[in-house]
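User: Can you recover a sequence for this backbone? Please restate the input before giving your answer.

Assistant: Of course. Working from this structure:
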C-alpha cells in the first residue's frame, strides 16, 4: 500500500540541459543530478512555453500559458490569488514550503501564497550574503543571511524538512538563484577548470547569416555584449570580435560551470537526506530549470529565443514506486504540464482551468496514444536590453516554425532598427543547430503551410491571438 507521495521540487535558474552529464554534456560532470536521472526518468524533449524566468515560473505553478496567467514578461508579476498546484496540495493536507528564488513579485499581492513557510530572494537575489524575505505580515520581512546563496537555500530546505510534521506528506520547492548571471562562484569551486580550456560549442562563431534579422540583432553575444562584472575582469574591447568571443567564452563558461557544481553538491545533500530518512521510495524528486540557456551556442549567453538551447528545459524525475530507474522519454512535455502531473501523482484532480496535461502515464512508460506532437511557444518582450524580437512559433518533432512579429527598438531606442515581421523554418533533423532558415525554399511550401495551420490551431486552442500582420 503506497502512501501519498512527498514532492521535492528542485529548480535552478538558467541551467541548460547540455551542462548536465546525464544529458551528455561535453563540458562538465554533474554526478548528483545524474543520481536522479539514473534512479528515474530523463526527459529529452521538455520545453518551456516562454523562455524567460518569471513567465516560466508562473506557467509551472498555474499550468497555464502566459497570456492566461497574465505573466507575459519580466515586468509582469503574478497575482498570488491565482490557483496553483501548491495551493491544491496544501488544501489536501500536504505541508508546503518554498525557499530560494521566487521572482514573481513581492508585497502582499505577489509574495508566495499557498505555502506554510517560505523565505525568498527579492527579485534576482545575489550570490553572497543575500537578503531574503521571510514569511510574515504585509508580504514578509527582509533580513540578510550570511553565506553563499546555493548553500543557504539548501540549509533552509533541510531545516524545514527536519522540522516538518512526519505524519503528513510534503511539497518542498528548492529554487536556486544559480546559475543565473552574473555567475559568481563560491570558494569551494573557484579553482575548477583553472588550468584547462573548456571545449567551445560548434556554433560559437556563428555569423547569423541564413537567419531572419532577429539573430544578428540580438544583444547577447559572449564578449562584445558582456560587461566587466560578467567576466570578472576588464573586457579587452580592442580585441577582434571573434577572438574576444573565444576569450570571454572561457571566462564565462568556467564561472557558469563552477556555479553549477555548487548546485550539484547541494542537490546531493538533499538526496542523501532522503536516503538517511528512508524517504527516497515515497518522494517524487524533480530537478529542472525555468528554461534553457545559450552556453556560447550561436555565440550567445542568455535565453529568450525559441532556438533549442534556450527552449529546452532539463527535466529528470525520480519516484521509485512509479518510475523505472534509468528510463528515458522522448515525448514532448511542457512546463505547463508540471502542475497537473504532480496533482495526478498525488491522487488529486487537476485545478479548473489548467491547460497543461498530466504526463503521469509517461512516467510509467505508457505514453497516451493521443499525446501531443507539437506545441505553441511565445516570447512577448520586444523592448528588453537584449534586443530579442518578440516571436511565436510551433515546434514538432521534425520542424520549427518561428514568426518574429515585433522588432527590437531596445530600451531608449538605443539599439535596434525597424524590421518587418519575418518567418523562420528549421529542419531539426537535417539542421539540428538551426543555422539554415529554409522558409522560402520552394520545396518547403507545403510544409510551411501545414505548420502555419498547426501554429494557428494551437494558438486558438490555448486562447491566444495572432499578430495582426500574420494573415493567411
Ligand atoms: Ca531563468
Amino acid at each position: 500500500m503506497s502512501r501519498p507521495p512527498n514532492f521535492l521540487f528542485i529548480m535552478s535558474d538558467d541551467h541548460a540541459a547540455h551542462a548536465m552529464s546525464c544529458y551528455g554534456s561535453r563540458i562538465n560532470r554533474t554526478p548528483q543530478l545524474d543520481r536522479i536521472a539514473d534512479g528515474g526518468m530523463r526527459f529529452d524533449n521538455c520545453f518551456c512555453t516562454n523562455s524567460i524566468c518569471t513567465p516560466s515560473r508562473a506557467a509551472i505553478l498555474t499550468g497555464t500559458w502566459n497570456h492566461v496567467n497574465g505573466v507575459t514578461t519580466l515586468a509582469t508579476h503574478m497575482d498570488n490569488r491565482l490557483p496553483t498546484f501548491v495551493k491544491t496540495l496544501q488544501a489536501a493536507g500536504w505541508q508546503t514550503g518554498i525557499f530560494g528564488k521566487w521572482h514573481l513579485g513581492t508585497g502582499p499581492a505577489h509574495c508566495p501564497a499557498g505555502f506554510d513557510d517560505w523565505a525568498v530572494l527579492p527579485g534576482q537575489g545575489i550570490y553572497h550574503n543575500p537578503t531574503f524575505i521571510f514569511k510574515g505580515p504585509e508580504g514578509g520581512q527582509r533580513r540578510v543571511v550570511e553565506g553563499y546563496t546555493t548553500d543557504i537555500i539548501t540549509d533552509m530546505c533541510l531545516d524545514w524538512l527536519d522540522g516538518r510534521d512526519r505524519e503528513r506528506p510534503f511539497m518542498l520547492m528548492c529554487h536556486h538563484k544559480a546559475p543565473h548571471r552574473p555567475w559568481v562562484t563560491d570558494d569551494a569551486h573557484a579553482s575548477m577548470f583553472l588550468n584547462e580550456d573548456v571545449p567551445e560549442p560548434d556554433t560559437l562563431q556563428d555569423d547569423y547569416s541564413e537567419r531572419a534579422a532577429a539573430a544578428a540583432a540580438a544583444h547577447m553575444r559572449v564578449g562584445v555584449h558582456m560587461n566587466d562584472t560578467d567576466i570578472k575582469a576588464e573586457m579587452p574591447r580592442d580585441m577582434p570580435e571573434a577572438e574576444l568571443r573565444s576569450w570571454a567564452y572561457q571566462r564565462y563558461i568556467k564561472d557558469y560551470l563552477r556555479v553549477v557544481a555548487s548546485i550539484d553538491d547541494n542537490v546531493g545533500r538533499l538526496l542523501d537526506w532522503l536516503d538517511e530518512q528512508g524517504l527516497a521510495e515515497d518522494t517524487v524528486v524533480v530537478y529542472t530549470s525555468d528554461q534553457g540557456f545559450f552556453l556560447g551556442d550561436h555565440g550567445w549567453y542568455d535565453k529568450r529565443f525559441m532556438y533549442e538551447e534556450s527552449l529546452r528545459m532539463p527535466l529528470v524525475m525520480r519516484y521509485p514506486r512509479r518510475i523505472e530507474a534509468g528510463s528515458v522519454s522522448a515525448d514532448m512535455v511542457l512546463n505547463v504540464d508540471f502542475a497537473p502531473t504532480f496533482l495526478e501523482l498525488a491522487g488529486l484532480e487537476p485545478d479548473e482551468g489548467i491547460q497543461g496535461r498530466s504526463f503521469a502515464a509517461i512516467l510509467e512508460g505508457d505514453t497516451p496514444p493521443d499525446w501531443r506532437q507539437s506545441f505553441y511557444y511565445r516570447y512577448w518582450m520586444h523592448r528588453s536590453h537584449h534586443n530579442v524580437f518578440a516571436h511565436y512559433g510551433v515546434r514538432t518533432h521534425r520542424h520549427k516554425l518561428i514568426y518574429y512579429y515585433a522588432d527590437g527598438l531596445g530600451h531608449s531606442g538605443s539599439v535596434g532598427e525597424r524590421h518587418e515581421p519575418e518567418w523562420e523554418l528549421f529542419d531539426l533533423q537535417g539542421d539540428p543547430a538551426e543555422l539554415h532558415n529554409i522558409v522560402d525554399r520552394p520545396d518547403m511550401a507545403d510544409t510551411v503551410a501545414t505548420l502555419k495551420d498547426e501554429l494557428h490551431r494551437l494558438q486558438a486552442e490555448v486562447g491566444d491571438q495572432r499578430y495582426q500582420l500574420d494573415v493567411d
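That completes the design. Confidence is low (pLDDT under 50) at residues 408-414.
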